[in-house]
Structure formats: structure tokens, C-alpha cells
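Pilot study result, target chain (254 residues):
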Amino acid sequence: MPQRVALELAVQDPAGAVIAADVGARRVELCSALGATGGITPSAALIEAVVDAAAVVPSSDDAPILEVHVLVRPRPGGFVYSSAEIDLMLRDVTLATDQGVDGVVLGALTSSGTVDVARMRDLIAAADDAEVTFHRALDVIADPLAALDTLAELGVARVLTSGGATRASAGLSRLAALVERSAELGIEVMAGGGVTAADIPALVGTGVDAVHLSAKRSVVDAGGPGGGGEAGYEVTDPTLARAAAEALRTTVVP
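Predicted structure:
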């Protein structure tokens, strides 16, 4: 029997991790400022709180102990980093792994738009035994199949990708090509990028190992001129998370 496709939720607080566990997600990617920036590194205290929240969730055959993977991204924008930014990322990787996370999510590119092998090697070494996921920096690389080879050689566990499209549902052909190549390399492909529950059957049809989404909603809470204006903040929505989990459970794996 094929292995069931894993569900990963991007969350921003301990409550989000609890919801992820409740719906049977395999992993969470913990980040901050997800909607505003695409996600940046969460604080050390937030990492500790989410690790603690995940640790007390009971496991079962249907819902294993929730894994916590932490985004390490020092700023919004592109993925070509200065030496100072890489130093900060190395510190963040060490802080996260010292707090017992299961993995880190990161990526670094060269100015020519390829995987920055030297800097990735240093970041992976800092992660020690924690898994490394290469995030959607893959979606701005001109030759993602070649990048997949490079990342597998470096020891990256999985890649998060929309197949190069704005939304994963529009990148199905490239996702399928990445999956085909990944089978020879021993690296997982996780589909993510604007994913909704309705997209999940088509994504599973490409053969991906996991599906990633935020399942978030906005809370209106005006901060005034010194607190971000009318932006409010985001939370994980249990209804959206449950719908995604149900879609995954009821989709036949090819």
C-alpha cells in the first residue's frame, strides 16, 4: 500500500499547533508574519512554546506525535543572503535545534539564481540531526530538477514547492516532474502555495509526499497608527484545517 500523503500546516502560535494535531497533521511549519511577508523566523520564546504544546498532544495510529519544523528566514524578499544574514540564520538554526525542534525550513541562493551550496552546507551542518526542508526558494530557480539533485546530495530531506506557479494548483505538471525525479534521489516533494482543501485531490494526483497549507483566517483588530493600522492578525482556522485533513483522508493515493 502507498504511504499516506502527509499534511503540514503553517502555524504562527501554540494554538495553531494544537489545531494541527487535532486534525491529524504530521507536521507544522512554525513562522511569524506569514501573510504580510510569506513568513520569517519566529522568536525563541515562540519556538519553545510551540515545542511544549506539541509535546503534550497524545498520539495515536491516526495522529502521530506532531513534528515542529521552524522557518529560518531573517527577512522578507529574495533568498540571496549576505554573510551577516547567514550568520544570523546559523544562530537561529542552533537556537531552534537546541529547543528540540524536529526540523528547520530554509533556503539560500547564489546571485545567479542557483542553490548556494557552500552556505546550504553550513546551514545543514548547524541543523545536526534535525531534518532540513528547502522552502519555496526552489520556485525561483530556473532549473528546479537540477536543484533537486543538488539538494539531495546535500542531504536535504524535502523541498516545499508550488511547481514554480503562484499557486500549487497551477503547477501540477512541474510538481509531477519533480516527484518523478525525486523517486531516484530519496528526497521528498511537498506541494504548497495557496493550497485549499479543494486543491488537494489534484495535488495528491501528482504523487507528492506531502501537502502544505496555512488554513488561516484574519482577525480584525486595528492597531492604530503605531500598530500596523487596520491589518489585524492571523490565526489558524480549525474549520479550514479540518477540511484539508478530510480532503486528504478521502483522496485515493495513486
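One observation from the pilot: The chain is about 35% helix and 15% strand. A full batch analysis is planned for the follow-on phase.
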